[in-house]
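Quick one: examine this chain and its backbone structure tokens and tell me how the chain folds. Here goes:
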Amino acid sequence: MSPAAAAAAAAAVSPTVCVMDAAGTLGATLVRSLLLRGYTVHAAVQTHDEMQVLNGVVSSDTEEKKLKIFHSDPFDYQSIMDALKGCSGLFYSFQPPRDQPSSDELMADVEVRAAHNVIEACAQTETIEKAVFTSSVTAVIWRDDRKSIPSDLDERHWTDINFSRKFKLWHAMSKTLSEKSAWALAMDRGVNMVSVNAGLLMSSDLTITNPYLKGAAEMYEDGVFVTVDLDFLVDAHICVFEDVSSYGRYLCFNHIINHNEDALNIAKMLAPSAPPPPQSRDQDMRVIQQRISNKKLNKLMVNFEREPQDHCGLVGETNGNGSVHVTKNISV
């Protein structure tokens, strides 16, 4: 078999996907899980320093050969194209630039531009079969009429931009505008895109300054304060990518904060030194009715297998000494 034929056969067995931004909590864990499932992964990071985050994700020589790290800036279109080259899929999550605040009105424009560049690059990459776009539950729940909607909030609902701006819910506004922009461009360019609208990610680096938490008291009272474990969120991303029947948006959470004890526990975790607020017995016993549904995702994930699949054969490009190949795409 010729080298070209061997490479083509290997690629058919082991798909190549891109994870962007691979240095975030979600991105780095996705890279690890995809390698375990036998994928070849293009891990796109924004800076040289962020490469260090990926040092611990490789546990074998085989996985090392299947990991390629790209310096890719979401505002540098060509660097995105380079990272996507040869990939059949993209997992995209936005990470704010280090030199810009992570939660203000201007961040919405930044996030929209990044989303536009990434989806346009997918449209221009012939090998891309599906893009998984990470969004947020906050792009669903904030609207004036949220208390009067007769049904539970789900994938059909969108956060109202004017409402978000009025109450300075910048995270919700940014996620809503960027996701809407991505959907509009994906439909116009014929990109097969699905979105995962995640609840509050319960990761080790969660702090009280997380912009998702703006309006947490109202979310709690409305029955829409939902959280998601990192492993479940990663599984959801992989499931919607691998399942050919996936479409549209998927609300992703596996816990709801609707009981006083839950609320106190998360408050203690975020601010351990703060004294607990006084509670009455009625408050202790009250359970807020859940007003948000993730049935669509739960139905899709019924038959999802977490166990790594055996995709043998594809050998990634490495340096002569067997170390991870790094492709540099940002001019210094």
About this structure: The chain has 13 helices and eleven strands. The two ends are 41 Å apart (CA to CA).
